[in-house]
Model the fold of this input.
Amino acid sequence: MNTQQTVSRPVRHGKKRMKPKAVLWMAFKLLFLFIVSMYLIFPCLTIVSNSFKNRAELSRKVPTFIPKEPIRDSWEELFSDSDFLQGALNSIKLGLICMFIITCIAIPSAYAITRVKSKGGGALQVWILISQMVPGIILIVPLYNILKSLGLTNTHEGLLLVYLVGGQAVAIWTMVGFIAGVPKEIEEASFIDGCNILTMLWRILIPTILPGIVTVMIMAFLSVWNEFYFALCLIKEPALRTLPIKLRTYIGISGQARVGMLSAASTMAALPGLIIFMFFQRFYVRGMMSGSIK
Done:
């Protein structure tokens, strides 16, 4: 007669308990992240809060974080200011044009630097990197003289040329890193299938490096959107001023700012960057190239 013996093993229910040291380390990391987050978020929340305060509450010696009597006067006055809206439109126009041109030039330039082997390729990359080490403030006088000789001072065209020259090097350097990560076998396979260089760029390379392209586009737009110094020195016509220059007008000659208006305008100026990062942040992570040959 056969007897069956069953061996019973203890069944563990639930998750494994963390050690006290691991719990302390996790608590420390969460506390550190909370402190850093509050350090970054608190000034932004303060600006938004100030935009809804009246003058009496803004001038208090002991500031309040939450407005006691929220008002919309600063926002209504801001949107009734036609110069503010015109400055925002100017910044959007310059940002979009600069973003498009810089991206169109950066892709073929970075491809040529990465794929075309030449004696001066390495020196060209070093020169692009060195050009970013020159402070922009020391270039304002020669740039102004060049634009004056071309008749482009106090124009958006001249300001756009300055932005294109200043932002192209960063865009090319960024695109070089993304294109270098694309396996050459993909391009060789497309050439074997009958693609020319333009077809390969449009159908193969550009979809593969789309995260890099979006990153360059966002960087180019935000750099123009936030730029202040060159616009201040090269633009004098009020109708041509960009948004950062318009924000400067809310601070008087004596340094006394219209805090409510300035807070509301600063909130509006920060919204495009916030919206862009919310919807396109995943493109900042470099795409995984594994399996792309398939």
